Amino acid sequence: MSEQRAHYQNVHVIINPASGREEPILAILNTVFGEAGCDWDISITRPDSNIMQMAREIGQSGVDAVAVYGGDDTITAAAAGLMGLGVPLAILPGGTANILSLDMGIPGTLEEAAALLVEGGTLRALDLGRVGDLYFSNRVSTGLLATMVINADRDAKGRFGELAYTLRGLEAALGERENSAYTLVVDGLTVELEGVASFIANTGNLSLRGVSFSPNVRVDDGLLDVLVVRRVDVTTVVSIIASAANLENVGEALPHWQGKEITVQVDPPAPAAIDGEPLGETPVTAMVVPSALNVIVPSASEVQ
Amino acid sequence: MTEQRDTAANGLRRVHVIVNPASGQPGDAVLNTLNAVLTEEAGVEWDVSLTRDAGDGFRQAKAAVEQGVDAVAVYGGDGTVREVVSALKCSDMPLAILPGGTGNLFAVQLGIPKALRRAAQLIAGPHRIDTVDVGLANGEAFVVAAGTGLIAETMDVTDREMKGRMGFPAYFVGGYKKLRELRHAEYRLVLDEERVEEGDGVACLVSNTNSTGISGLQVPSGGSNKDGLLDVLFFHDVDPPTVLSVVGDILGLQELTAPLVCWPVKKVTIEADPPQLVTLDGDITGETPVEVTILPSALRIIVPA
Q: Which of B235, B218, B300, B221 is CA-nearest to residue B265?
């Protein structure tokens, strides 16, 4: 085996050991990093850890890169901590539904994802969304979608892909529910329409490799997208999902707008969720943090 | 009696785990298992540090003592365990062994489960804290045995991968290979600063336990790691057929017939001409001369209730 000198020589890995995957994390990292002579260390997150602060302190400690092993929640919190530090983030997918890593084309196995730190890959900017002092990488949901996301069963999320699962569930939850009055304010422009749910998206991935609900939703476009689901859309959306070949049409079937600052107001007030966590009730205002940090992703030539 | 029985919850709330990521069973999902057993089953708070270079295990264990955790756990081979023992000896800090490396003789002797999950459950669940003796060789701690000559050289020539695959007896396949070039030395042993024994020999072994670290070879005096004594075994210079019988015994091929002398002592100084390699619990640590002493009841260790 040829000796390869690691591109990132000094790496700190934040590991959420409760992330849902069972694998010999340390043995794998030791093999990948050890063979490349990479200096690495780890920190473990606990249920009560402030991961954002942990990542910020590590990012300021002089490392070349901060890698995070965990699900999207852990990775988002660490990404928020690294904002503005100029230290790149490496995503080591460890959760059941790694939407962010799929969106950024990061390999699905720990070996391959860790090898990016050795090979170097390339840097890609990642926008984050912000609601008050909370950050999100994927989306803020309201209405029925928020209820679904909050109640989502983790295993089912992993199997079907989070959004696909959510929309399937949406049909079941819809029942006789009527549309509510949605008022969107998109960079100062007000839009009024009826709906049962909405989401403000930073990423567009359906947890299926290469499949986005809209080609317009990019993690580095400096914009958030807001999509509203009307009662009439649910059947359409579910049928599109059922014919998996046309998944990319899901987004096109829904009314959507782009902006840097988006407010969603619902009458009567509806529940909201931020990347799977409860966020009280609407109204909710989300802003984009453009190019909040750089993420190490495969070089263009390595992407299939 | 220095043992004490803890309550069911054992009062262990915070544990620091020292892991050698380069050792262990390739399939052990160490972090997942610790999370499942310590965090989710028992609510025990834990943190991890990784050893990279010699001395890391010692420093990390000392730091954990200063931090004031309730126990220090170690996942690694005998060498890592030895460093942590060295840091914890003569403190009140209990040690938990998560068998992860080759050998792990000490863990086996104490009845600590070999499976990671069950060893971790020992920390979180019912256990007792035993107190055992620690050996010191030129100031370095060991728990099972110190050896010189043939015993050390077998360690030196047995490649680590083979150790990993085959376990401890594999060391002695190396020893067998070494036979043709077997070197003997003029030994001078000073027992308890009084008695002097001299003679040609191929190896000397100082055991803190009832084990010699050699498969099938027990300490003739039936030593224990609680008796405050070391057992010195001297392998006289022998003609090749006799050495073969020693190796045969080691490999489990035949009964031990080699001339073997055993003295229980509190201290022994071993000199050899020419100088011989020294091994502590399977690690080559230097050459003779070596002074071996014992620290009675110096280590608290978590064992099955």
A: B221
* A37 Cβ under 8 Å from any chain B Cβ: no
Note whether B19 contacts A47, CB cutoff 8 Å: no
**pLDDT, tens only, A146-185:** 877 666 554 444 444 555 555 666 666 677 778 899 999 9
**Residues of B at the A interface (Cβ-Cβ below 8 Å)?**
19, 21-22, 24, 26-32, 34-35, 39-40, 45-48, 50, 52
Per the CB < 8 A criterion, the answer to whether A22 and A49 are in contact is: no
Residue ranges for chain A with pLDDT beneath 70: 1-4, 96-97, 149-173, 204-219, 236-253, 301-304
Give the global pTM: 0.80
Structure tokens at A293: 């940090």
Q: What confidence score (pLDDT) does residue B181 get?
A: 54
Q: Nearest CB to B50: which of A18, A23, A41?
A: A41
Q: Is A30's CB within 8 Å of B35's CB?
A: no
Cβ partners under 8 Å of residue B85, min gap 6? B95, B134, B141, B142, B143, B299
- The complex's ipTM works out to 0.77
Does A29 touch chain B if contact means CB atoms closer than 8 Å? yes
Residues B57-89: pLDDT tens digits? 999 999 999 999 999 999 988 788 889 999 999
Hey, are the CB atoms on A21 and B22 less than 8 Å from each other? no
Least CB–CB distance from A30: residue in B21, B34, B45? B21
Look at residue B40 and give its three-state secondary structure. Answer: helix
Is the pLDDT score of B291 beyond 90? yes
Q: If you write DSSP's letter for every residue of B72-137 in order, what string do you get? A: EEEEE-HHHHHHHHHHHTTSS--EEEEE-SS--HHHHHTT--SSHHHHHHHHHSS-EEEEEEEEEE
Residues B157, B171: Cα–Cα separation, whole Å: 8
pLDDT in tens, B123-162: 999 999 999 999 999 999 998 889 888 777 665 544 444 4
Contact B40 A21 (CB under 8 A): no
Sequence-distant (6+) residues with CB within 8 A of A291 are A125, A126, A127, A220, A222
Contact of A22 with chain B, judged by CB distance below 8 Å, is answered with: yes
Query: What is the 3-state secondary structure of chain A?
Result: CCCCCCCCCEEEEEECCCCCCCCCHHHHHHHHHHHCCCEEEEEECCCCCCHHHHHHHHHCCCCCEEEEEECHHHHHHHHHHHCCCCCCEEEEECCCCCHHHHHCCCCCCHHHHHHHHHHCCEEEEEEEEEECCEEECCEEEEEHHHHHHHHCCHHHHHHHCHHHHHHHHHHHHHCCCCCEEEEEEECCEEEEEEECEEEEECCCECCCCCCECCCCCCCCCCCEEEEEECHHHHHHHHHHHHCHHHCCHHHHHCCEEEECEEEEEEECCCEEEECCEEEEECCEEEEEEEEEEEEEECCHHHCC
Q: Kindly report, residue by residue over B15-49, the tens digit of the pLDDT.
A: 999 999 988 777 789 999 999 999 999 999 999 99
